[in-house]
Amino acid sequence: MPRKPSSDRKPSTASSPADTKRAPTLASFRSEIDRIDKELITLLNHRAEIALQIGQLKQKQGLEVWSAAREDEVIARALATSRGPLPAETLRLIFRELMSGSRSLQRTMRIACLGPKYSYSHLAAVAKFGEAVEHVPVGSIAAVFEEVNRRHVQFGIVPLENSTDGRIADTLDMFVRLPGLKIRAEIRLRVHHCLLSRSEWGQVQRIYSKSQALSQCRHWIGKNLPEARLIDVVSTAAAAEHAQREEFSAAVASQAAGVSYGLKVLAANIEDQPHNITRFAVISERSEERTGRDKTTLMLRVPNQPGGLVEAISLFKKNGINMTWIESFPTSDGASDSDPNYLFFLDIDGHADDEPVKKTLDLVRKKCERLEILGSYPRGECIES
Ligand SMILES: O=C(O)C(=O)C[C@]1(C(=O)O)C=C[C@@H](O)C=C1
């Protein structure tokens, strides 16, 4: 049975500084905060004990520890309940870490992402799962997929597309190779790039970064450092490592990477588009249940003939299903020298278990040579990096 909190007393106001005749002092305010903290700790531990019991139930029923839908619900309720003055973002972070802590009591979760730490993939992982998980940075997007596929980790974080720069080919390619892995959630991270260095602005000769990050800042770099040599490396955090090691070099990376590698911020917010958002996918072996505010990612190949694609996707229009993303992707899958082939990646509104989506997908499948449901998952809110 869940244990009652040791004290169900509402935070008392009787002894609050406002009620005393004398003007409140720093000491009296602080002793009120000490009293509130004590109650908070009791309540937090009571919450953790209940989370532990939920963990035991889940284990008995073979359910997963992480429930994305429930976590979204808890945060949405906290934000709706709050009347301030605590900022909504602060409250969101507090609840994210609370639930990260609850999960870690139930089971240690391992999350793979493109590293080293403080890459944007790592920041996306922290934004979704909090700090109380084991972050496993690996050397490539392909390695993230392999770690999940080999069950070395429960989840992987991979970038799908960027609002300035488009699709991430390495990720789409891995979905072609390992279509059995499912997208469980999306993380839409607002990406702010910094120019980081241990040298001064006028000394920078080389700029390291991941190709997509360099591309997202190309106008800024062309205008402000036209002579610098641009060097493409595996991730923005790896770029920060280079900039730490080498004099007269800089990195385009996150501010967090700058702090971690002890670099100066020579310029902040250097992305060309102010709304620079990268959409990441959380991948795992299992699929996600319906929440009522879902989307579905599909991968399909249609016959290489006039109207092949239109015949398939017009069925979404006919059945009132909104399509929010489409990417064509050249592939060797089903291709020959004379007949190159394309796969299409699509997002539609709704969950694959929603009756209208299910019926439509059955019809679409008949028009396709190949149709994979890469996952149905809740639509993600935009999070600041
Ligand atoms: O409600 C659950 O399923 C829990 O395990 C509790 C809790 C929480 O701390 O609120 C923790 C982890 C889950 O991902 C969702 C919520």
Describe this structure in words.
The chain is α/β, with parallel strands linked by helices. The protein folds into 4 domains: 25-104, Chorismate Mutase Domain, subunit A (Up-down Bundle), CATH 1.20.59; 108-191, 3-Layer(aba) Sandwich (D-Maltodextrin-Binding Protein, domain 2), CATH 3.40.190.10; 194-270, D-Maltodextrin-Binding Protein, domain 2 (3-Layer(aba) Sandwich); 290-379, Alpha-Beta Plaits (2-Layer Sandwich). Helix content is 39%, strand content 25%. The chain is built from 12 helices and 16 strands. The strands form 3 sheets. Strands 1, 2, 3, 4, 5, 11 and 16 form a 7-stranded mixed beta sheet that branches. Strands 8-7-9-6-10 form a 5-stranded mixed beta sheet. A hairpin with a 3-residue loop joins strand 3 (155-162) and strand 4 (166-167). Helix 2 runs antiparallel to helix 3 and helix 11 (308-318) packs antiparallel against helix 12. The longest helix is centred in the N-terminal third of the chain and has 36 residues, at 26-61. The radius of gyration is 25 Å and the shape is globular. It starts with 25 loop residues before the first helix and ends with a strand. Residues 1-14 have low confidence and may be disordered. Prephenic acid binds at residues 51, 54, 66-67, 70-71, 74, 99, 102-103. Residues 20-110 form the Chorismate mutase domain. Catalyzes the Claisen rearrangement of chorismate to prephenate and the decarboxylation/dehydration of prephenate to phenylpyruvate. Residues 110-285 form the Prephenate dehydratase domain.
